[in-house]
């Protein structure tokens, strides 16, 4: 029998931050980690939605040690405020889950295209600003949620040459894999006890963007996508399973990519297994190039994890 949430170990004494915990797999992930004893921080953009999520979590797990903290990944000042408010306490697991739906073109408070700004740049900044707390915690993990749609992404870093919402969304999710690769590479070279892994929830009802997605305009493609999700997508419980596995299972490898089902992650549902990823998302040069550009755009630098020479491409 494959891995299930019943295999989550006792997490008492550990602290976890889950971004985008206001609904969907993010909330399920926060709930199950809290159920198993972790002090769980729900990092949410909207206070009302976050408060409702926390209320639901506590109704299902009355003994949970859980709290709500506001975090808007589309605003780097909010990311900095969240990190400053976190303080110096240890951080065992950071789950980079939040992200808006592939809706109409928009910009973050700092002028970045919204999908790329939130999915990648916001989480890049958050991870870097919490890096000291992660490195001070033995066995800490950074789990970044990508998507099945990363298959439509490419090696290009500029998402705005010609705006196509699904392609931009895919590129931002491919950036999650490049970020994970470079974070794992730097942690390994520095001898840091930090595991970086990526996941995708499969074809699950992820509720991306929450109210933003539901209120957004959309053409035929958007309506088809919503209908497909309504008819065929698994629930958020299924989408959370690969995330929970990557966050807690003892056999998770650095720079791994977990999704539902085996073999080779080709099933859209089922228990966690190895997910397929484009070979270029494991190459050092594009990952290091994205990292440098991300530092320039966010102003966040990972001083404790210095650059590593790229391996020659075969």
From TrEMBL:
Q: Which residues lie within the region annotated Disordered?
A: 263-282
- Keywords noted in UniProt: Oxidoreductase
Show the stretches that span the lipid bilayer.
Answer: none
Q: Name one Pfam family in it.
A: adh_short
Please give the InterPro entries that the UniProt record associates with this protein. NAD(P)-bd_dom_sf, SDR_fam
Q: Which PANTHER family match?
A: NAD(P)-BINDING ROSSMANN-FOLD SUPERFAMILY PROTEIN (PTHR24320:SF148), RETINOL DEHYDROGENASE (PTHR24320)
What family does the entry list? Belongs to the short-chain dehydrogenases/reductases (SDR) family.
Q: What is this protein called?
A: SDR family NAD(P)-dependent oxidoreductase
Q: Could you read off the lineage of the organism from its UniProt record?
A: Bacteria, Bacillati, Actinomycetota, Actinomycetes, Kitasatosporales
């Amino acid at each position: 029998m494959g891995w299930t949430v019943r295999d989550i170990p006792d997490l008492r004494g550990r602290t976890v931050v889950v971004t985008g915990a206001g609904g969907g797999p993010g909330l399920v992930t926060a709930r199950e980690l809290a159920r198993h004893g972790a002090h769980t921080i729900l990092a949410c953009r909207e206070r009302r939605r976050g408060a409702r999520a926390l209320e639901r979590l506590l109704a299902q797990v009355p003994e949970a040690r859980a709290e709500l903290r506001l975090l808007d990944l589309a605003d780097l000042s909010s990311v900095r405020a969240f990190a400053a408010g976190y303080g110096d306490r240890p951080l065992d697991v950071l789950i980079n889950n939040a992200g808006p739906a592939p809706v109409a073109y928009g910009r973050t408070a700092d002028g970045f295209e919204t999908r790329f700004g939130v999915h990648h740049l916001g989480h890049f900044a958050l991870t870097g600003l919490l890096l000291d707390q992660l490195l001070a915690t033995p066995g800490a993990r950074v789990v970044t949620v990508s998507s099945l749609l990363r298959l439509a992404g490419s090696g290009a870093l500029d998402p705005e040459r010609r705006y196509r919402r699904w392609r931009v969304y895919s590129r931002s999710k491919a950036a999650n894999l490049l970020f994970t690769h470079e974070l794992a590479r730097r942690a390994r070279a520095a001898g840091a006890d930090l595991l970086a892994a990526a996941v995708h929830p499969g074809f699950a009802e992820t509720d991306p963007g929450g109210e933003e997605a539901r209120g957004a305009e959309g053409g035929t493609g958007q309506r088809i996508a919503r209908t497909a999700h309504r008819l065929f997508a698994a629930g958020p419980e299924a989408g959370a399973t690969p995330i929970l596995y990557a966050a807690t299972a003892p056999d998770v490898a650095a720079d791994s990519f977990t999704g539902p089902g085996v073999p080779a992650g080709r099933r859209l549902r089922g228990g966690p297994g190895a997910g397929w990823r484009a070979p270029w998302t494991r190459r050092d040069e594009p990952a290091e190039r994205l990292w440098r550009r991300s530092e320039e755009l966010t102003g966040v630098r990972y001083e404790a994890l210095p650059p590593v020479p790229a391996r020659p491409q075969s």
